[in-house]
TrEMBL record:
Its EC number is 4.2.1.8. It is an enzyme of class 4 (lyase). Keywords: Carbohydrate metabolism, Lyase, Magnesium, Metal-binding. One of its GO terms (biological process) is amino acid catabolic process. Residues 129-258 form the Mandelate racemase/muconate lactonizing enzyme C-terminal domain. It catalyses: D-mannonate = 2-dehydro-3-deoxy-D-gluconate + H2O. Pathway: Carbohydrate metabolism; pentose and glucuronate interconversion. PANTHER family: D-GALACTONATE DEHYDRATASE-RELATED, STARVATION-SENSING PROTEIN RSPA. It comes from Microbulbifer rhizosphaerae. It comes from the Bacteria. Gene3D superfamilies: Enolase-like C-terminal domain, Enolase-like, N-terminal domain. This is mannonate dehydratase. Catalyzes the dehydration of D-mannonate. Has no detectable activity with a panel of 70 other acid sugars (in vitro).
Length: 403
């Protein structure tokens, strides 16, 4: 028994907002969990402060599964990003404590390493195809084996994934949502040109990925997946919104381009049909937004039966705590596919000192006991919360579209 004596939520903005849960125990060990929900941070902070923390005090920190069930079933109101991010933060912190108590890096408790490291992909983006490919080459030169390509669309002033700062793409950049303009017709013309040029210039040894960011209808997505087939993508991500999982059937009927989805999923129920009908190849649910290690393990285990691999979301809005948890998880499961890796700024890295390291296109979580990541609370305090929103998206005629 290791009694939970205190738990607190730390909100900090070292360049962007992060919400972190820190749990303390009477054994002197503490654990950290990430509770960041981009653009809706304070909702999760309140869920934890007002509804979860009072139930944690006095509980046995080692009862991870029981605590998960208690918070999930006990809430009566199930699922959703706020609830599941809050549960995830508790779950991560408890796994951190258990692994520290065992004196082992977390991946050892999850079954031990299945591989030497987790292959990651970086983000190359540019206003023109030429810029984007120059960026991609920069990633390849740094040792990356996989690169996501996003390029500006001729005729559109801004495009998802194309940022001013090359290393630290940060879409939640305004006090109120900025408005972007979108044209599916223009995009469907330009995306295949990007990948044709990429294969010509970068060759075939690098894995190439692309994110559609939920903007197409099923038949439009089918056309894009088919047009991109000759360039052998590693994956085409979020081709359509996935509230209706059956949307993916149409894309599947038309193309062998591998499909990835799931960064906004919260539970196994969001991807059950996608996995069981083998409508996707990679599932992008995360430790953070999908209920912690305890729940993501269930998703990965189901996926394994159907030869679906993981490709966890790893944008900058997931803190180094999530990155560390994802790496322990990825190292230990048989059906790991790839891990997204958007680097954090130096300020964020300083607030969250961590053990994970990049080498030769792989990240390794390190061998420190626990998650191998912590929060520097006095430093975190120097970066107060700043409201920030993700953009919204409109079509050229003014109608709202998916961002
Ligand atoms: C990705 C994602 C991000 C999201 C961001 C929203 O593939 O990394 O699509 O770019 O837009 O994480 O919070
Ligand atoms: Mg994405």
């Amino acid at each position: 028994m290791s009694k939970i004596t205190a738990a607190r939520v730390i909100i900090t903005c070292p360049g962007r907002n992060f919400v972190t849960l820190k749990i303390e125990t009477d054994s002197g060990l503490h654990g950290v969990g990430d509770a960041t929900l981009n653009g809706r941070e304070l909702a999760v902070a309140s869920y934890l402060n007002d509804h979860v923390i009072p139930c944690l005090i006095g509980r046995d920190a080692h009862k991870i599964e029981d605590t998960w069930q208690y918070l999930y079933r006990g809430a009566y109101w199930r699922r959703g990003p706020v609830t599941m991010s809050a549960i995830a933060a508790v779950d991560m912190a408890l796994w951190d404590i258990k692994a520290k108590a065992a004196g082992l890096p977390l991946y050892q408790l999850l079954g031990g390493a299945c591989r030497e490291g987790c292959m990651v992909y970086g983000h190359a983006n540019g206003v023109t195809i030429e810029d984007t490919l120059a960026e991609a080459q920069r990633y390849i030169d740094r040792g990356y084996r996989a690169v996501r390509l996003q390029s500006g669309v001729p005729g559109l002033a801004s495009t998802y994934g194309v940022s001013k700062d090359k290393d630290f793409y940060e879409p939640a950049d305004a006090d109120l949502p900025t408005e972007n303009l979108w044209s599916t017709e223009k995009y469907l013309r330009s995306a295949p040109e990007l990948f044709a040029a990429a294969r010509e210039q970068l060759g075939w040894d690098v894995h190439l990925l692309h994110d559609v960011h939920h903007r197409l209808t099923p038949i439009e997505a089918a056309r894009l997946a088919k047009d991109l087939e000759p360039y052998r993508l590693f994956w085409l991500e979020d081709a359509v919104p996935a509230e209706n999982q059956a949307n993916f059937r149409l894309i599947r009927q038309h193309s062998t381009t591998p499909l990835a989805v799931g960064e906004v999923f919260n539970t196994i129920w969001d991807c059950k049909q996608l996995i069981e009908e083998q409508l996707v190849d990679y599932i992008r649910a995360t430790v953070l937004h999908a209920g912690g290690i305890t729940h993501l393990k269930r998703i990965a285990n189901l996926a394994e039966l159907y030869k679906v691999r993981t490709g966890c979301h790893g944008a900058t809005d997931l803190s180094p705590v999530t990155m560390a948890a994802a790496l322990h998880f990825g190292l230990s499961i048989p059906n790991f596919g790839i891990q997204e890796y958007m680097r954090h700024t130096a300020d964020t890295d300083a607030v969250f000192p961590h053990q994970y390291q990049f080498a030769d296109g792989y990240l390794h979580p390190g061998d420190a006991p626990g998650l191998g990541v912590d929060i520097d609370e006095p430093l975190a305090e120097q970066f107060p919360y700043q409201r920030a929103y993700l953009p919204v998206n409109r079509l050229e005629d003014g109608s709202m579209h998916d961002w």
